[in-house]
Amino acid sequence: MTIVPISDDSIRLGQFLKLAGLADSGADARALLEAGEVRVNGEPDSRRGRQLRKGDVVEVDDPRGSNSAAVG
């Protein structure tokens, strides 16, 4: 699992997917969320604007396999 540092107290899920390299673009992030391929702390989530805090773990299932990253 990759730990991705953030400079603020929180970051939106859509932004984090791009920053962590789990999505190539905002459109890719939206598609993953709409398809139900994203889990936050083990729970499915489809809200692009969800606020993540340090310690949250994001997992993505896509055709390339499962990837995960933690907010650091």
Architecture overview:
The chain has 72 residues and is α+β, with helices and mostly antiparallel strands. Helix content is 22%, strand content 38%. The chain has 2 helices and 7 strands; from the N terminus they run ββααβββββ. It has helices spanning 13-19, 26-34; strands spanning 2-4, 10-12, 38-40, 43-44, 51-53, 57-62, 65-71. The strands form 2 sheets. Strands 1-7-6-3-4 form a 5-stranded mixed β-sheet. The chain is globular. The mean pLDDT is 94.
Summarize the helices and strands and which ones pair or pack:
Elements: E1 2-4, E2 10-12, H1 13-19, H2 26-34, E3 38-40, E4 43-44, E5 51-53, E6 57-62, E7 65-71
Parallel strand pairs: 1-7
Antiparallel strand pairs: 2-5, 3-4, 3-6, 6-7
Short summary of the structure?
The protein has 72 residues and is α+β, with helices and mostly antiparallel strands. The protein is built from two helices and seven strands. The protein has helices at residues 13-19, 26-34; strands spanning 2-4, 10-12, 38-40, 43-44, 51-53, 57-62, 65-71.
